[in-house]
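Internal QA ticket QA-208
Title: Verify multi-chain structure generation after dependency bump
Assignee: T.L.

Test input:
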Amino acid sequence: QVQLVQSGTEVKKPGASVKVSCKASGYTFIAYDIIWVRQATGQGLEWMGWMSPSSGSAGYAQKFQGRVNLTRNTSINTAYMELSSLRSGDTAMYYCARADGRLGLSWGQGTLVTVSS
Amino acid sequence: YELTQPPSVSVSPGQTASIICSGDKLGDKYVCWYQQKPGQSPVLVIYEDNKRPSGIPERFSGSNSGNTATLTISGAQAMDEADYYCQAWDISNVIFGGGTKLTVL
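Actual output:
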């Protein structure tokens, strides 16, 4: 079955960067795009961007352009989300998800990123 | 592109709950619905407007036409109390509705 396992909780200081990993199993990694979504406590889901594991190409929500970088390592079936210039408003749960178009999203367990001085 | 949901919906146990999701010409797109319980990742409950993944109870159904998609829970149970999000694609962008908190009481 499809499984996405994300890296653990992160605590960062303002201005730092964070890199979250998302290891895929149970399917052909390069066959499906990976998207990243974040959710602040008590808030809704916010799409950050997508990445094609087969080509490495990526697209980003306008809000995160220039601050987020989505990459992958196909040899270990892992996708990465790096967010830079962190501020307190970036404190949130970050999710990766396998995108299957109109067939929907399969989600990782989430990674909590806390930004605090 | 934006999807709009009501912030909250209440339903009595055993009754039918309807959660709407509105967007311009939304009926021209495919809509998915996700259920999210506190402390958990979202779970797909409807895809392609009206199809249920395996393991999702038959009481969950969906429709999409015009500018509105609807998630219907027939015979709502206490376990259905959760946040629900609609989702569509706009070109290569993922769009989420703001979410609806379903209270079963």
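Spot checks passed. Chain A has a mean pLDDT of 97.
Status: verified.
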